[in-house]
Write a structure and sequence with these properties.
Helix content is 9%, strand content 43%. By secondary structure, it is mainly beta. A hairpin with a 5-residue loop joins strand 12 and strand 13.
Length: 324
């Protein structure tokens, strides 16, 4: 009898080895030597999401922030679908809409939303991403855009929602399991309210958004690609003559689209700020004879009501004065 027990036990172990590939041994193979469960994700509103009203701006703003938590295994987020509902009176465009990480790095494709895409029958906006969230951790995703070309209503009230009504709103892949991991949430983020009354759309010095800020828009095409035979944008620098001036933000806008943007590392800013290829948003821009003359360089500086300096590109420099 003892012999038979050993015999049956040996047969059971051999069968487990031969046929176990369909069960726990397959999981062990995918996840290493230990058993591993396929991952999952949850989606919620981030506590870092801005609240209250925002002024329309030609610079990138954080519109809302959502949080994705990963469970059981690292998850690579591949796609996010959103809708922007501004109601039946929505007019104008929301430009350069994209999804950024906590460090301010663009992680997604970029979209321009015409009024028909963000009215009361909003189109689903699909953003491709490449962002990894470790198991047991979360990542905040910042929805940013340029609201300066919204023309109505005032204020514009926009409901941003994860578009899970027709399938997955957040899609990814488990790094270990290689399985598709999705969330079909239709989470509505807190209402976005954009005030238009302080928005000055004409080139020149605009009304300040705060007590100690200066903004100027230059509409001059030549300097943007001076010294560049292929007319590819090579970079742009702003330097203030006064050492006490702190430049806090520099943005290049072409045809109402933000091409490149940079914010200073500190609130005090710096005397010189440079936009380089690493600050490009999306695929960049090539200047040609069809380029609109609506090219703006937007500068903000703290602690002054005006300053003089130079705008520079490779091979050329233009002096300027800003006085409010």
């Amino acid at each position: 009898m003892q012999l038979n027990i050993k015999k049956y036990l040996a047969v059971f172990l051999v069968a487990a080895v031969l046929f176990g590939a369909a069960g726990v041994f397959a999981q062990d193979y995918r996840c290493g030597r230990k058993s591993c469960r396929v991952g999952s994700i949850s989606v919620s509103t981030s506590p870092n999401s801005p609240t209250g009203e925002q002024d329309a701006s030609y610079s990138l703003q954080t519109l809302k922030v959502f949080r994705v938590q990963a469970y059981n295994e690292p998850v690579r987020i591949r796609e996010v679908k959103l809708t922007f509902n501004g109601g039946p009176e929505a007019e104008g465009t929301i430009d350069s809409v994209g999804i950024y990480n906590n460090a301010g790095t663009l992680k997604s494709s970029v979209a321009r939303l015409y009024s028909s895409a963000w009215d009361n029958t909003p189109a689903v906006q699909q953003f491709t991403l490449d962002a990894v969230i470790q198991a047991g951790e979360y990542a905040d995703f910042y929805i940013k855009g340029v609201t300066g070309n919204i023309t109505g209503p005032d204020p514009a009230r926009i409901q941003i929602r994860l578009a899970g009504d027709n399938g997955a709103s957040v899609s990814g892949t488990g790094l270990y399991s290689k399985q598709a991991i999705i969330s079909s949430t239709s989470l509505g983020l807190p209402l976005l309210t954009v005030r238009l009354e302080d928005n000055d759309e004409s080139p020149g010095i605009s009304n300040s958004r705060s007590a100690a800020a200066v903004e100027v828009r230059y509409d001059w095409r030549g300097i943007l690609y001076a010294g560049s035979e292929d007319r590819q944008w090579k970079g742009l620098s702003i330097t203030a003559n006064n050492y006490r001036v702190g430049i806090t933000e520099l943005t290049l806008i072409v045809d109402n689209r933000v091409i490149a943007s940079k914010v200073a590392d500190s609130d005090s800013g710096s005397r010189t700020m440079t936009l380089s290829s690493s600050d490009l948003i999306g695929s960049g821009f090539t200047f040609d004879e069809r380029t609109s003359s609506k090219i703006w360089i937007v500068v903000r500086a703290n602690g002054v009501t005006g300053f003089r300096g130079n705008i520079s590109v490779p091979g050329y420099s233009l002096p300027f004065s800003i006085f409010r």
